[in-house]
Specification:
Number of helices: 13
Largest sheet: 7 strands, mixed
Radius of gyration: 21 Å
Shape: globular
Oligomer: single chain
Number of strands: 19
Distance between the termini: 32 Å
Structural class: alpha/beta
Length: 366
């Protein structure tokens, strides 16, 4: 197959994730030159990834694409990249070996398919789509074209949560039995956003479904949801702003996810995993870790108030993995099937909330 204008050899290797996944073709890169990367989307997340790529020794940010030319062209130039308005020009540019998709959600699927058909490896921010059939179509094209797809669940790359997972793999706490994930945003988005977001299960809790799979090393089997709209924004959007989800995993472990659209003290992101030999806890992170202890008490600072600050290292390291995936022809640690699983869980949660009962994911799969 021809990729980025270069003829490559092809071999077969197994996907690194758990579960039944198709075998993926992997091309052996023959050149030590930096890999050419194109970024679709010049908004906030596109700029975050462009910054990492522009600083990489193993990658060259060659192109950025965005239809809002007046805003986006100066952004591309600020990172030393060429600019095109049409993403199709980017994915078909022979200099581009990998495509980063940071555009709005409704465009992800068509851009994944176009990139795969052009023979380019892909990074896509979550979600691939909020429609399971559309996701399956994307994954089939990715498989058929023999390219790799890394899905943007950056929380797996957070130093705290990555350390928790490594200790689990090391057997430090024995067999995982239970887990509790806390995820609370500092303030609710406006009702206009919530009405278009797909709902709290797709928009917010999908990250936490992924973390449940990440730490349990198993697939979600069944969910049961309790939720309520306490604030007017969610009520107006006919959505929840506060949810507790009970999950049973296929390996017998189970846990809870607690979510809120608002939290008075900041961005609250914590996880606890209980095993047969002990417990692992990943706590909040903040701008300062300094703790004041005196006669009046013990005082520490607040956590971060913005997700981009909380997960700075996660966004950096997931993009570093994308480059490394292309350079060293590795399989992605978070692939398209990892992108599908949280959407399936979200669908089951919607049914559970509507019918007030436990729902097996098999009920809603297609």
């Amino acid at each position: 197959r021809s990729k980025g204008g270069t003829q490559n050899m092809v071999c077969f290797i197994l996907s690194s994730g758990f579960g039944a996944r198709p075998m993926a073709r992997s091309a052996i890169r023959m050149s030590a030159e930096p890999v050419g990367i194109g970024v679709i989307g010049c908004g906030r997340i596109g700029q975050v990834h462009a910054k990492t790529l522009a600083a990489s020794m193993d990658a060259k940010l060659v192109l950025m694409a965005d239809p809002i030319v007046d805003f986006a062209e100066p952004v591309a130039k600020s990172f030393g990249a060429d600019f095109v308005a049409d993403y199709k020009d980017l994915v078909n540019d022979p200099r581009v070996q990998g495509v980063v998709i940071g555009s709005p959600t409704p465009y992800h699927a068509e851009q994944i398919i176009a990139s795969a058909e052009a023979g380019k490896d892909i990074f896509c921010e979550k979600p691939i789509s909020n429609d399971l059939e559309v996701i399956d179509k994307c994954l089939k094209v990715v498989e058929d074209k023999g390219v790799r797809l890394l899905t943007g669940f950056q929380r797996r790359f957070d130093p705290n949560f990555r350390k928790v997972k490594q200790e689990i793999l090391n057997g430090t706490i024995g067999d995982v039995r239970m887990f509790h994930i806390t995820s609370r945003d500092p303030a609710p988005p406006p009702a206009e956003y919530l009405k278009k977001s797909g709902g709290i299960f797709l928009d917010m809790i999908s990250h936490d479904f992924d973390m449940a799979r990440f730490v349990s090393q198993s697939e979600i089997d069944e969910v049961f949801v309790t939720g309520k709209a306490f604030d007017p924004e969610a009520a107006e959007a006919e959505d929840f702003d506060s949810v507790v989800t009970m999950l049973r995993m296929k390996n017998g472990s189970f846990g809870t996810i607690e979510n809120s659209r608002s939290c008075a003290f900041g961005y609250d992101q914590r996880i606890e995993v209980f095993g047969s030999k002990g417990t692992l806890t990943g706590n909040n992170r903040g701008p300062s870790s300094v703790v004041l202890s005196n006669g009046e008490g013990i005082t520490s600072g607040l956590p971060f108030s913005f997700f981009m600050d909380r997960y700075t290292e996660g966004y950096r390291d997931i993009m570093t993995e994308f480059v490394d995936m292309i350079v060293n022809q590795k399989e992605p640690s978070v692939d398209g099937y990892d992108g599908r699983a949280p959407i399936l869980a979200a669908m089951a949660c919607k049914v559970s909330a509507a019918e007030n009962r436990p729902v097996s994911l098999k009920e809603v799969d297609v």
